Amino acid sequence: MTAQQEKDGTDAFLTARPRLFAAAYRMLGTVSDAEDILQDAYLRWQAAPQAQVQDATGYLMRITTRLCLDQLKSARARRETYPGEWLPEPLLTEDPAEHLDHDVSVALLLALETLSPLERAAFLLHDIFDSSYDDISAALNRSAAACRQLAARARRKVQQLRPQAPADPDQGRDLAEAFFRASRTGDTAALTQMLAQDVQLISDGGGKAIATLNPIYGLERVLRLCEGLARKAGRGLPEHWRLCRLNGLPAILSREPDGILQAIALEVRNGRIARIYVTRNPDKMRHLAEPLMQTEGVGPSALTGNSPGSFQPQNRGSWNENGRRSARRPPGIS
User: Fold this and answer.
1) DSSP letters spanning 184-196
2) In 3-state terms, what secondary structure has residue 168?
3) CA distance 238 to 258
4) Quick one: which H or E segment has residue 104?
């Protein structure tokens, strides 16, 4: 391969990379795994007969899809023994005009978890990435008719679980800030005005940070949890926090007093908060340490706790719905 051919191959990969990452993230639900898949895809692309490839992006998408399917086999096994609730790794989506925001929402990614790997791939490639069934057939090594059936079956399963269009960005940002302040100060009157009656709170600590082991359902229980946590934290805001958008949702990043980096994403329906997604698993938050540092007035030296990628939290366990810590349970025990 000449230097020019190598450059052309690299340029083709870089052109396709955003689309490849988007597909891998939706397939796997984690930023780190998606990045690993792209690294493997690039190595395979380098070894491929590139001069014979007419559609580089399509070829790379097939490689990426197959790598993701292999990864899902082990990922599904790991999630069966995952301690507590599993949430996808938060993805920073700062531009509310980005047309893919709605397609990376937490609710949709959780809905995709109900699908088989082949259903997930067929649905995403056709409904999200507009691939033809002939192209999907080549990626999945199934007939076009079989791929059509896979996508249709997946579509039926996802239809009832897929979220509504995201809230107005300005409204969502204001609501996120109001929620964060009220929840940290234990202002239950304010929280009552912004939470839906059937609100749900789902928290993911991965067995490495304190979190609720099971979802909290209903206004009264969520209020009780917020009140307990506010009381425990001293009824104040953490020193370092910022508003942002995660997976197309209004969200808050914060460095908590215990050193844990935390993400809260809010799903808003009819002007009220219907779902609260709290991610505290350090393994899922490393890529968001830098965005928090970029907050105005906050530098790396000001952030307390361990450096990104080396979190060693000592306070492990779970919250009960009164915001008190309960005994840590072994992985796989709910």
Assistant:
1) HHT-HHHHHHHEE
2) coil
3) 10
4) none
Q: How far is CA 166 from CA 163, 180, 202, 273, in A?
A: 8, 19, 19, 12
Q: Which CATH architecture has domain 1-80?
A: Orthogonal Bundle (1.10)
Say how far apart CA 299 and CA 289 lie, in whole Å.
Answer: 11
User: Token pair of 25, please?
Assistant: 């993230």
Lowest mean pLDDT across 62-71, 227-236, 316-325: 316-325
Break the chain into its structural domains and give their ranges. Answer: 1-80, 169-326
Report how far residue 324's alpha carbon sits from residue 304's, in angstroms, rounded to the nearest whole number: 24
Residue 284, amino acid: K
Pair 38, 18: CB distance under 8 Å: no
Q: Report the 10 Å Cβ neighbour count for 294.
A: 10
3-state helix, strand, coil in the chain (%, to 5): 50, 15, 35
Parallel, antiparallel, or unpaired for β 211-212 and 240-246? Answer: unpaired
Q: Binning pLDDT at 50, 70 and 90, where does residue 326 land?
A: very low
Cα first-last separation, the chain? 55
**pLDDT, tens digit, for every residue of 116-169?**
999 999 999 999 999 999 999 999 999 999 999 999 999 999 987 765 665 666
Q: 275, 257 in Cβ contact below 8 A?
A: no
The number of beta carbons lying within 10 Å of the beta carbon of residue 316 is 14
Q: What is the largest CA-CA distance in the chain?
A: 68
DSSP helix/strand/coil, 269: strand
Domain 169-326 class? alpha beta
Q: Tokens standing for 299? A: 């530098």
96 three-state secondary structure: coil
Q: Are 27 and 121 in contact (CB under 8 A)?
A: yes
Contact 182, 191 (CB under 8 A): yes
Helices (H), the chain: 3-28, 31-47, 56-80, 106-112, 117-123, 133-140, 144-159, 169-185, 188-194, 219-233, 289-293
Q: Phi-psi region for residue 164, left (φ > 0), alpha (ψ -120 to 50) or beta?
A: beta
